[in-house]
Amino acid sequence: MKYTHYIFILFIAIITSLLLWIYIKRASFDYDSEGRFFSSEDGAVYHEQTLEVYGLFALFGLILTGVLIVRLIIKRKHR
Asked: What is the pLDDT of residue 61?
C-alpha cells in the first residue's frame, strides 16, 4: 500500500502523455472544410471536433498529475 500513490501518479501521467500525443498527432492533420480528415493508411475518418476533447482531457490530466505530485512532496516534507 506504500507505493500505491506512486503507481497511481505514474498511471495518470502515462494516460495524460498518451492523450497529449493523440492531440498533437491529430492537430497536424489537414482537415477539409467540413472538419474531416480521411486517412488512407487507416481507412478511417477523423473529425476536427475531437481535438477539443483530447486537449481538455490532456489538460485535466496534466493538472491532476501536477496536483498529485505537489501533494506527495508536501506530504513527504511533513514526515
From this structure: 96
d(CA 64, CA 29): 28
Task: Specify the number of domains making up the chain.
Answer: 1
Residue 32 above 90 pLDDT?
yes
Residue 8 to residue 5: CA distance in whole angstroms: 5
What pLDDT is stored for residue 1 in this prediction? Answer: 67
State which residues form the domain around 60. 4-77
6: helix, strand or coil: helix
The arithmetic mean of pLDDT across residues 22-31, rounded, is: 93
Asked whether 36 and 68 are in contact (CB, 8 A), the reply is no
